[in-house]
Design goal:
Layout lengths: L9 H5 L1 H20 L3 H19 L4 H19 L3 H21 L8 H10 L1 H4 L4 H29 L5 H4 L10 H30 L8 H10 L1 H12 L1
Length: 241
């Protein structure tokens, strides 16, 4: 059974504000790199928080709007007290650790998180086909271990980088010798490149392991992920409750 992309609907149109916000995200990151001003990556983070909460904000209930306002106010306080740099440095570590936890905690149940993705993107019938549920559990293990390993590595680099590490800034001799260029490159670029490469390699592995089944193209799958991201986020949140 192949997966098809439905024509634009009201739900698709309603997601356009999220697409516009996400389009501004890389521009703000580039502005931060060029100007070396923390306000731009903080604005990028504020956009991501807004996109993440957008399905709940659209309901116009007071609690999500209060939570969103508190998050934005917290970012302004961090900028005011010159703590934004530390937040931006630790954010990739915290994000990947939380994602690893989100994937890993579902492995104890009958439906691992990747299986939920399959149901949302391709339907319940896809999960019942031979080998799919077993492969979904294996991929959930893969992302759990990769994200946890990345979070650990990033934490070590942030602490122990020879010049910019937190230990060096505090005047503490690091127990590890971590060359500054390697640490900086991995913290700013390498960790994200690994996630993108892992996504593409997992897709190729899936097509080989489940070659007895038809598969959508990579572009079509990415489109479906973009269209259904609110459902996926709600699924992850339900499993974290």
């Amino acid at each position: 059974m192949s997966m098809s992309v439905s024509p634009p609907s009201t739900g698709t149109v309603s997601r356009r504000p999220a697409w516009l916000l996400l389009a501004a995200y890389p521009l703000l990151l580039v502005a931060g790199v060029v100007t070396h001003r923390q306000i731009f990556p903080l604005l990028a983070l504020a956009l991501l928080l807004t996109v993440w909460m957008l399905p709940r904000l659209r309901a116009f209930r007071p609690r999500p709007w209060l939570a969103w306002s508190a998050m934005q106010a917290g970012l302004l306080l961090l900028l005011h007290y010159r703590l934004a740099g530390l937040l931006l440095e630790t954010l990739p570590i915290v994000a990947q650790a939380l994602l690893a936890y989100g994937f890993g905690r579902t492995l104890a149940g009958p439906e691992p998180l990747v299986a939920r993705f399959i149901v949302v993107l391709e339907g319940e019938a896809r999960l019942q086909q031979p080998g799919v549920l077993r492969y979904a559990r294996q991929v959930t293990w893969f992302w759990t271990l990769l994200l946890a390993g990345q979070a650990l590595l990033l934490g070590v680099l942030l602490l122990c980088a020879n010049d910019s590490g937190l230990l060096a800034r505090l005047g503490i001799v690091s127990p590890l010798h971590v060359p500054e260029p390697w640490a900086t490159t991995w913290l700013r670029l390498g960790c994200f490149a690994v996630i993108g490469l892992a996504f593409v390699l997992e897709y190729a592995c899936r097509r080989w392991r489940l070659r007895h089944l038809p598969h959508p193209g990579l572009h079509r799958m990415l489109v479906q992920l973009a269209l259904h991201w609110p459902e996926l986020v709600r699924g992850m949140a339900a499993r974290s409750a």
